[in-house]
């Protein structure tokens, strides 16, 4: 038996959806939605608190004329997935999603927005997406609402929150606040939060071509009309040449080494990557181009300035933290993966203690190889290492070529 799934956004139901409700033999839904749509008298209802319990009440499909009422578009982070997972056939009458409604209230386009859910999921991935991107919609949940988002982002991530409570309901309220203010207010569920970087919003508004030139945060949009929704397709090139970065005395991780480091770091949307001893910031910037949130750490003020210039030139977001590792790392949120380009085994040890997924270390001194491997192993990582030595083809007069040897580098990595 096909289950009719009706979305509700505060508007009157479409006639076909109203017909299904009028003929229902069982109606399942959230308390607010059941009240709002008006279930016909005498028809049994199941109030959906616990989704699994409600699905159990629907049974295995032998009931006639079951109607499920859910908020917004039930096919978008909604009940349709759970029903399909239990093998039910469904017909869907969607309403406007809370995300669509929130962007409408803010008067913004959203094909270039990142949409993340913290509803029943860990908050850190949503927070990292907000750090990395300038236009994010967050579906919130208990313990993962505007206050918790504000606490995670303030004061280092300047953003505007548009908190949209009870969209489409009489209790609807839309508030614009800074992350710090969000931590001190009381918010009502349900709500969806738009986390906006005003520069991104301005750039995307200026993009009359449809969003292609807009700033989704990873600097990889290229030009031309936007053709894919969300954060964009990712970088067309990586392991960029050293000439792509301002650097001092060739203090930049070479492209061949960066290629392996990036492969082992695996930076992506929702991740936080540290680049410790960042130098030019080349690794940090490449991680940001893959959509990750990134913090570049360097103790040298001139290096930090250089990193900021490189970040600006590549149109990415990278937070820069100046100070000596490991002490400065204490104040940073836990990373998924860390690249250590400078600092001894003590720094590697501190990074390995905090990294959730992986650590990659580039080093030149032979004596550091063993303590680095030991530091990774002590933190529970399976350590591997390789020595890389590239010989680049270099032109000679008369059209001939020679091999120009770069210094050998050890790349050590550990994964959990
Ligand atoms: C499981 S998701 C459901 C999303 C839904 N399918 C949609 O399209 O809006 C639940 C989350 O959606 C958001 N939400 C649902 N209804 C809302 C409303 N009326 N006003 C604001 N946010 C809402 C909240 O973030 C809530 O925690």
Summarize the entry for a quick read.
This protein has 416 residues and is of the alpha/beta class.
Provide a descriptive summary of the structure in words.
The protein is of the alpha/beta class and 416 residues long. The chain folds into 3 domains: 94 residues, Tetrapyrrole methylase, N-terminal domain (Cobalt-precorrin-4 Transmethylase, domain 1, 3-Layer(aba) Sandwich); 103 residues, 2-Layer Sandwich (Methyltransferase, Cobalt-precorrin-4 Transmethylase, Domain 2), CATH 3.30.950; 174 residues, Vaccinia Virus protein VP39 (Rossmann fold, 3-Layer(aba) Sandwich). Helices cover 30% and strands 24% of the residues. The protein contains 14 helices and 19 strands. It has a 7-stranded mixed beta sheet, sandwiched between helices. Strands 3-2-4-1-5 form a 5-stranded parallel beta sheet, with helices on both faces. A hairpin with a 5-residue loop joins strand 17 and strand 18. S-adenosylmethionine binds next to strand 10.
Keywords:
416 residues; alpha/beta; Rossmann fold; Methyltransferase, Cobalt-precorrin-4 Transmethylase, Domain 2; 7-stranded mixed beta sheet; binds S-adenosylmethionine; 3 domains; 30% helix; 19 strands; Cobalt-precorrin-4 Transmethylase, domain 1; 14 helices; 5-stranded parallel beta sheet
SSE arrangement:
Blueprint: E1 3-8, H1 15-22, E2 26-29, H2 31-37, E3 45-47, H3 51-58, E4 66-71, H4 79-85, E5 90-93, H5 98-106, E6 114-117, H6 123-132, E7 135-139, H7 146-153, E8 160-165, E9 173-177, H8 179-182, E10 191-196, H9 198-206, H10 255-265, E11 272-276, H11 282-289, E12 293-298, H12 301-314, E13 319-322, E14 337-340, H13 345-354, E15 358-363, H14 369-378, E16 382-388, E17 391-395, E18 401-405, E19 409-415
Parallel strand pairs: 1-4, 1-5, 2-3, 2-4, 6-7, 11-12, 11-14, 12-13, 14-15
Antiparallel strand pairs: 7-10, 8-9, 8-10, 15-19, 16-19, 17-18
